[in-house]
Task: structure prediction
Amino acid sequence: MIRSISRLSLSLAALLLGSAAFAQQDDLIIALQLEPPHLDPTSAAAGAIDSVLYANVFEGLTKFTEDGSIAPSLAETWDISEDGTSYTFHLHEGVTFHDGTTMDAEDVKFTLGRARAEDSQNAQKALFAGIEEVTVIDPLTVQVTLKAPDGAFLFNMAWGDAVIVAPESIEGIKAQPVGTGPFTFASWTQGDSISLSRNPDYWGEAPALSKATFRFISDPTAAFAAMMAQDIDAYAGFPAPENLPQFEADPRFQVLVGSTEGETILAMNNGLEPFDDPLVREAVAHAIDRQAIIDGAMFGLGTPIGTHFAPHNPDYVDLTGLSDYDPEKAKTLLADAGYPDGFTTTLKLPPPSYARRGGEIIAAQLRAVGIQTEITNLEWAQWLEEVFRGKDFGLTIVSHTEPMDINIYARPDYYFQYDNPSFQELMARLAATTDPAARSEMLKEAETVIAEDHVNAFLFQLAFPTIADAKLHGLWKNQPTQATDLTGVYWEE
Result:
């Protein structure tokens, strides 16, 4: 009798274990290099916030899809007036925020009003400057009236800076984000991870994942070790491209190498001597060997650029020849500018490996033409405060991952302080133009202007390598915006 019971127990145990073994996995641990400084995408320039929260926790009226196209999101449909100055958005019915409050037209009005207010902390406040008035028609209908037609308005509303937030939860949004997305914020262990949980009341299609944990691993060596040990399921934007061949040869993993909107630049403070002199900026540009940086810092991953525009965009112009590697020309330009013996400046570097590794190479290249750099490694929050907001730098390296962001060169108070009234006028005309052919010509002109002015030294378009478990599906390969969209991610059965 005892033996029979034991066998029965073992059989039941085996059956239970078998069921567990075949149960489909529905949680995910994914690593990123940068931790967000806080969790409000509408009041900071840090793309690391969107990397965790965009499309997962927060949603906008429109959204970016993986191929970069614009799709409806909280706005189900919209109508555009004949003169292009009025957009009437029809919102999805039954949408609630994670705290249970209803998302309606009043929240859209609040969001857009807060973003364009005089005291707005929105890093992309210029996206909302063209709004004249926001009118609530009824709870599910809101009309946005523009000062002038804006051919990029629906595109602008897809940015992470334009996600819809509510007045009821805005006070604590930096630590307790409340959105409308398919995942709710669960916890944040600062210095380690952020956890999200599936939203049981989501208005749209429920995600396959029940839980997602974002771990922050900044050190490339630690990232490699964690992935090889399978302590993490995926790493988006893997920081050690030299290790990719090892993962490609290992059947446990898959390697996705996509493109980004990330124009990686050696930014120059145009408002500070000597970078207020175009000859000096041109000298710096000619002192840089782009391919050596791509090979040395990125192990060949990256596409050389000669202006602030993505090479995969159909309107891209290859202007690399305007700033080809020519150290002798750089020395001549420095002498012409009154610096025959060069000068000393600061080079302040944020945490990403493209900046830290690239910075050492660039410092050596500049030294070869007489420009000495004092390198300072900054944490992300320090970089935002000191460089981006404080404009306290000579040189810095950063990748601008925002989509189609050439209009930042029309903002004199932007961190690199380029002030060109004719360029500003060109951007104003572009914004008011809806004809695709005319917009294309204006974009090409804009690319050429900033390349000829050598506003910054344009380095390369950032590639985006992702390492993932071979059984994981649905991760974005490309980065049309800085996001880790988990809405379509699932495990193989």
Residues 96 and 103 are 5 Å apart (CA to CA). The two ends are 39 Å apart (CA to CA).
